[in-house]
Write a structure and sequence with these properties.
Elements lengths: L15 H6 L2 E7 L6 H11 L3 E6 L5 H5 L5 E5 L5 H14 L4 E4 L11 H10 L4 E5 L9 H18 L11 E3 L16 H11 L4 E5 L16 H36 L1 H9 L6 H16 L6 H11 L4 H8 L5 H16 L13 H41 L2
Parallel strand pairs: 1-2, 1-4, 2-3, 5-7
Antiparallel strand pairs: 4-6, 5-6
């Protein structure tokens, strides 16, 4: 029986206090779920009056069935995808004053009353992203769901270094107040992967919450997941996330985050004046980092440089800090090309793209790569010499 929310029947839903305490609402993105959406909304209303539904351009009678229900409704005419619906729901929830949303699928596989388990975990982890952990060994679980979940769990661990039992569950609690200025770049099913990976990169704890799940028989199941298209997009997204993780996130966490925690000035001072390393090693680490940050092997600087720094027994932290000179690519590219043109005695910078000849392309490429290589060697040697000189002077002054 649904509790009537009108002033004449002021019955309080079961979990209303928890939803109010944590400034939370149910968020239900839906697309063509007319056969199940009303039942799911009624289940949610038994738990709280805080229900926000996003109608993602449904073409059946979903909108007709729900627009008179006591819910907050966001609707638009064209189907944009689950990720877009979630993103719009996040924005609307923030506008309504909520700090968290609990998302629940509208195909009827989740139990709204399991929201209590999210609040139990939220009490001890107030800014965490919580993901419902399903039992995928039960009856009627489709084989592709089990495989897809293992696939997703594997890549989540590669991209974040953390283990999760169920990264594909749609039953989640999002700390949307931490996403107010966040820019996302996916709109379909793959958003649910992007959001948990990038949340982890933000330092948000991603934690599992045990939940129940109902899977109807195959012939009764409703799914808008398109295996080839959606799996292809997910694969592309994982490729991008892995590259970002290995070329930016992991080096950042290894070096820059500890430096920020200590204070960049103090942390860098401890590195530069580490008594367990020689001045030559520290200066060489800086020089090699600058060299790798400039040398024209873009996209592979750290992949090549970190193993090389380990093999040469250099200071990996100083190397990565110095290699961050690569965060100014337009300046480095221009300087590399200028160096190459100077070496080849070619003062011509203007490129006529309409009449561009293959010989000119090869010549410009040669100038860029040779110029960048020479520039990286010179810059590395100069930085090595400057660092060695400064550390030598500072060490002498520090001696009694």
């Amino acid at each position: 029986m649904i509790r009537n929310m009108t002033p004449e029947h002021p019955n309080i839903p079961i979990l209303q206090h928890a939803f109010e305490k944590h400034q939370t609402c149910f968020l239900l993105p839906t697309y063509n779920n007319a056969s199940s959406i009303v039942h799911v909304i009624h289940q949610c209303l038994e738990q709280t009056a805080n229900v926000l539904v996003v109608n993602d351009g449904s073409t059946d009678d979903t909108l007709l069935k729900i627009e008179q229900l006591p819910i907050k409704l966001l609707t638009y005419p064209k189907n944009r995808g689950k990720g877009y619906a979630l993103r719009q729901g996040f924005k609307r929830a923030l506008e309504l004053g909520y700090r968290h949303v609990i998302t629940i699928d509208t195909d009827g596989q989740h139990y709204a009353e399991d929201a209590i388990h999210f609040f139990e975990v939220l009490e001890k982890n107030p800014d965490a992203l919580l993901i419902g952990s399903r039992n995928l060994n039960q009856e009627n679980v489709p084989g592709k769901s089990s495989f897809g979940n293992r696939f997703s769990n594997f890549w989540f661990k590669v991209e974040t270094g953390k283990t999760m039992p169920d990264t594909q569950s749609g039953y989640r609690l999002y700390p949307v107040h931490l996403y107010q200025d966040k820019k996302w770049f996916t709109n379909k099913y793959e958003f649910e992967i992007e959001v948990i990976v990038r949340s982890s990169w933000m330092g948000i704890d991603v934690l599992p919450v045990p939940i129940r799940v109902f899977y109807p028989k195959q012939e009764e199941r409703i799914s808008h997941f398109r295996p080839f298209k959606d799996f292809s997009r997910i694969s592309v997204l994982n490729t991008v996330l892995v590259l970002i993780a290995f070329f930016y996130i992991k080096p950042r966490d290894l070096v820059l985050r500890p430096l920020r925690e200590k204070g960049f000035k103090r942390g860098l001072k401890e590195l530069l004046f580490d008594p367990h390393e020689t001045i030559f090693t520290r200066a060489a680490s800086v020089g090699f980092g600058v060299f790798m940050g400039i040398v024209p092997v873009w996209g592979f600087q750290l992949l090549i440089g970190i193993p090389a720094a380990v093999a040469l027994k250099l200071n990996k932290t100083l190397f990565i800090v110095a290699a961050n000179i690569s965060i100014f690519p337009p300046i480095i590219w221009a300087a590399s090309l200028a160096t190459g043109k100077l070496l080849f005695g070619n003062p011509q910078w203007r490129i006529d793209f309409k009449n561009l000849k293959w010989e000119e392309v090869l010549q410009t490429g040669k100038e860029f790569f040779i110029g960048g290589t020479v520039l990286s060697i010179l810059a590395g040697l100069i930085c090595f010499a400057i660092t060695y000189f400064i550390l030598s002077i500072s060490t002498r002054k520090a001696k009694p």
